[in-house]
Design brief:
alpha+beta; binds adenosine-5'-triphosphate; 441 residues; binds magnesium ion; two-stranded antiparallel ribbon; 7-stranded mixed sheet
């Protein structure tokens, strides 16, 4: 194994000081998987004060990041490395993080507190890979397996349930039977876990190659963290456009979407409004009128609970609001959308609509998919050509209108009117053309 020179140097400094030290956790796993190198975390028998002392003696900058948990961050050549003392976790309360940690001398105890066998390996160049729980074998067989008694491990910290799903989705690994059983036995404990921590794992799950399979196999867990999705699980859509029930459609739409957190989160929630607006006509066909605006409101509740950033909140709810193509694809005017919601949202909206279509009856979608893809190309061309679609792109501004005698609110209203004419190619975006138009009114 070949860890970074910096990490190797830090490990050497610690062992020259008479301590044990290893690279540990995710970096060992990812190295064995041949995945691009991630941050190297170091674990050592040296207590935090001793780590600080050794770093100081060797003129390596140290930052006290989490002394209580035994972590010192060393900054070497501008790169941060977390160095954490071997520890075993103290008593767990409320299925959350431990109240305290105890430092220990043996790497074995440190490895045994880690969540999954594939995350519980350590490495240094003297000893090679320290693998006490069969992590390498599980990597080879593509298995997520809890270290020790799965049931107890999820009871200690229920976030591990989400982590298991996340690693299964990201690595395309199966979850071992006992671990899987323990997940279903303990999934309600997720209700006690900080929503932000759950959301961090959910985002990583959604962009995984195996997201659809995990969302399907573990939908009951998804129902615990997003109860608003539960009514979609058995919501049938008897409609020639559909071949799946609502949840089946949702997970196929996630799968069809680009691996972008916001787009995939939008797909997960896009039809959350359907069950509550479902109607069935006299021919037995199901309809879901206004499910998009209704769904956007439900999504607001979900996203607020996860305490997401304003960016995620605004974008996801806007995309859900507009995802239901009310206008015929032949009538979509890209510049109108650009004027209404801007470049970034418009692009995302068309990506959402394409992913949505792919999760419909495949016999029905060809024409619309083609049309939406050509609209995405048109969007790129419009941007590249520098065409006007926002007020600041106009060849006139508020002062020009002032000089013509417009006042106060009139100015903004008139500028918007001009923008709409320009966007619809009814007026050239030159100062002369616009002024002539205004003077001629
Ligand atoms: P990523 O590639 O996402 O960083 P990672 O495995 O490095 O994956 P981190 O959250 O960075 O995940 O955690 C680093 C290591 O700490 C893990 O590999 C695992 O050994 C341990 N760990 C993290 N969270 C837990 C937990 N909730 N319970 C037990 N061990 C954990
Ligand atoms: Mg990590």
């Amino acid at each position: 194994m070949n860890i970074s020179e910096n990490a190797e140097k830090l490990i050497n400094l610690l062992s020259d000081g008479g301590y044990k030290a290893y690279a540990v956790g995710g970096c060992v796993r990812d190295f064995l998987l041949g995945r691009p190198e991630q941050d190297v975390d170091i674990t050592t028998s040296a207590k935090p004060e001793a780590v600080e002392e050794i770093l100081k003696r060797n003129s390596v900058r140290a930052v006290e990041t989490g002394l209580k948990h035994g972590t010192v961050t060393a900054v070497l050549n501008g790169e941060p490395y977390e160095i954490t003392t071997f520890r075993k976790d103290g008593e767990y309360k409320d299925n959350r993080r431990p109240e305290s940690v105890d430092f220990v001398d043996d790497v074995k105890e440190d490895l045994s507190r880690r969540d999954f066998t594939i995350n519980a390996m350590a490495y240094n160049h003297k000893e090679g890979i320290v693998d006490l729980f069969g992590g390498q074998k599980d990597l080879e067989h593509k298995i997520i397996r809890a270290v020790g008694n799965a049931d107890l491990r999820f009871k200690e910290d229920a976030l591990r349930i989400m982590r298991a799903l996340r690693f299964s989705a990201a690595l395309c690994f199966d979850i071992e039977e006992n671990t899987k059983k323990a997940i279903f036995n303990n999934m309600y404990l997720l209700e006690h876990i900080a929503k932000e921590r759950i959301f961090t794992e959910l985002k990583k799950l959604l962009v995984g190659d195996n997201a659809m399979q995990v969302l399907d196999e573990y939908k009951e867990v998804i129902g615990v963290i997003i109860p608003e999705l539960r009514p979609t699980f058995a919501c049938i859509q008897n409609n020639p456009w559909h071949i799946y029930n609502v949840y089946g459609h949702i997970i196929h739409a996630v799968d069809a979407a680009p691996k972008d957190e916001i787009i995939r989160l939008t797909m997960l929630l896009h039809d959350i409004g359907k069950p509550s607006v479902k109607t069935t006509d006299e021919k037995g066909i199901d309809h879901f009128k206004f499910h998009a605006p209704v769904g956007a409101e439900i999504a607001k509740t979900v996203l607020k609970r996860f305490k997401v950033s304003n960016e995620i909140y605004d974008k996801v709810t806007t995309l859900i609001y507009y995802h239901q193509g009310v206008e015929n694809v032949d009538n979509i005017r890209i510049k109108r959308w650009l004027a209404k919601i801007g470049e970034d949202y418009t692009k995302a909206l068309f990506q959402v609509r394409i992913a949505d279509l792919y999760a419909h009856n495949p016999e029905k979608i060809d024409y619309e998919v083609k049309k939406l893809n050509s609209l995405l190309s048109e969007l790129a061309e419009t941007i590249a050509a520098g065409e006007a679609f926002k007020l600041s792109d106009l060849a006139v501004n508020g002062n020009d209108l002032l000089s013509l005698g417009y006042k106060g609110k009139e100015i903004g209203k008139k500028l918007n009117e001009i923008l709409m004419l320009v966007v619809d190619d009814q007026l050239h975006n030159t100062k002369k053309d616009i002024m002539d138009y205004l003077n001629g009114e």
